[in-house]
Design brief:
This protein is mainly α and 154 residues long. The chain is built from four helices and two strands. The protein has a single domain, classed as Cytochrome Bc1 Complex, Chain D, domain 2, CATH 1.10.760. The protein has a two-stranded parallel ribbon with strand order 1-2. The mean pLDDT is 79. The structure holds heme C (HEC). The site of heme C has 27 residues, from helix 3 and helix 4.
């Protein structure tokens, strides 16, 4: 029994220790502005396919999806800050197999509009600042840097 728990712990450590070169360990965006994030959400018409607390749409609003995807809450897909950022800039990264086929293209890619070439990094940071508090994500650790000192010229 104890060996079993030990094996589970080792597997968990290996899975979370970031051995993969694609690991999000150490990844953190600067502080964003949630108010501007809400504005970007409308500007980039995320409202075409999503509902989210804090954004209201007109009564005659038409969604591109038959069932718009609600954002926020405790999504099984988004449990960390990194996953939230990934789902915006690389939506095909993690598509649940249970997703109805109409949600993906024939080759299994996300139908989510790709705006990577027009979204600025600041806009992304603000979007994440707006969306993150709506998800129950694990708190993320900021990178720990040594204290750096600027060389002063006398
Ligand atoms: C054309 C439709 C469409 C548009 C426009 C769109 N999305 Fe999505 N989005 C989807 C679909 C479909 C999913 C769920 C499955 C997937 O990833 O393909 C999704 C998933 C997500 C998720 C993960 C949801 C979860 O809780 O698992 C986030 C976050 C998200 N979108 C953010 C955005 C943001 C921010 C914008 C605007 C910049 C946007 N989306 C625009 C279709 C869209």
């Amino acid at each position: 029994m104890r060996i079993k728990s030990l094996v589970i712990i080792i597997v968990l450590v290996l899975l979370t220790s970031g051995c993969s070169p694609n690991s999000s360990r150490g990844f953190s965006l600067p502080q964003g502005n949630p108010q501007l994030g809400a504005e970007n959400f409308e500007k980039y018409r995320c409202t075409d396919c999503h509902t989210v607390a804090g954004i209201t749409v007109n009564e005659d609003h038409t969604y591109l999806l038959v069932r718009p995807v609600p954002l926020g809450g405790s999504s099984g897909r988004i449990t960390t800050y990194g996953e939230l950022v990934t789902s915006i800039i690389n939506p095909s990264h993690k598509i649940t197999r249970r997703q109805p086929i109409s949600m993906t293209t024939e080759n299994g890619e996300s139908r989510m509009r790709n705006i990577n070439d027009i979204l600025t990094v600041t806009e992304l940071v603000d979007l994440v600042a707006f969306l993150q508090p709506k998800y129950k994500v694990e708190p993320y650790r900021t990178s720990e840097y040594r204290l750096y000192e600027l060389r002063t010229t006398e």
